[in-house]
Amino acid sequence: MFLSVFDIFKVGVGPSSSHTMGPMIAAARFLDALRDGADRIPGSGVAVRVQATLHGSLAFTGKGHATDRAVILGLLGFVPDTLDPEEAERRLAALRETGRIDVPGVGALAFDPHKGVVFDYGPPLPGHANGMVLRAFDAAGNLHLTETYYSVGGGFVLTERQLRTEALRGDDARVDRPFPFATAAEMLAMGAASGLSIAAMKRANETAGGAGPIDAGLDRLWTVMDACIDRGLATDGTLPGGLKVRRRARAIHQALLAERGNNAAQPHVVNDWLSVYAMAVNEENAAGGQVVTAPTNGAAGVIPAVIRYYRDHCVGATHAGVHDFLLTAAAVGGIIKTNASISGAEVGCQGEVGSAAAMAAAGLCAALGGSNAQIENAAEIALEHHLGMTCDPVKGLVQVPCIERNGLGAIKAVAAASLALRGDGVHVVPLDACIETMRQTGHDMSVKYKETSTGGLAVNLPEC
Fold it and tell me: Which residues 6+ apart lie within 8 Å of 57 measured at CB?
């Protein structure tokens, strides 16, 4: 299954790709289904009321992730990549006054912003830990339309039908990709046969079927990532949600700037630069700001931090290198998502920060001139040393341990790329074996440690 670089990296809003962006997208798609009318229940009247029910992890940590707000925004017609915060607040205020949503092509729908999103704390739906059901009713209370959606990580949303058929994209069968690798082994074999780099093969896949140049799209991704870092470095204060977590990136960055040129600075200060870049992104994400899923919001700081490190700290960095970084990282991310998961609710944080570190290690290795074998080795090293990492957000917020964890993920990614570049690409554990191990580990992991906030740090801080 082909996953574009623009599927793996999506412009959106915080704090969560699976718990905020996904539900918003699902709700907006439900409006499309209402307009289409193809799945309307026979005999029902005109739709006059809508309701949403959250299940599994979406229910357990939905309040902390603003999932209910995201669903309401989706029903109001907003989507993450074009969300206007001021307009969103205006429309939310109007909904609170009227209890009505005016849907173009459908009409007025009654919706109670306080009771219209139901949190079901029972067992999760069978398809995925992040499930939600949207329903529309007619004036007599009869069910007019219902659809089950699964937010499967990274802002990807599947209906129940799509989940059964494993259809992430509907146009795959109509486009012949010149390098249709689904595993790392296939990627390496195709690279060896063609003599092309991973980035070059990924670029060829992206532009197959008549698609135009992708450089403008890559530039937009990096521009949003870079701007997110800058906003985080310039902003202080306390993050929302009740934990009273102070933003730290601005103060750390100012201290680092003051130390530049100081011969007394420790050599490991580069780790502080990596950490502060990542923390800046994740503080913005926690505040609901604009970020790029990379491959998720909870792990959104790792890849931007390593690209910023490459651009500002590495010898010989180029703009073309940033493009190669993103393409290579997306190739690795697509393999991980296809064969395991990038969802914390499904496999724990090994699937989020672990995947992001693997992607960042591969991207940096490529940008620094690594061979395909070295790139695959870099990704494997980074993922291997995140295996078993749990997802236990305190109070259901993407703050503790998530913000610092992105900094450490970025540090591991750079270390993995450096180790791989010191070798010839030959290593014991193939990336595919590491990905399968991550999948199995996630399957065996207790649900307490998979984004439910019912275990780990989330229950061992009693004041929270």
Answer: 18, 19, 124, 129, 130, 345, 450, 451, 452
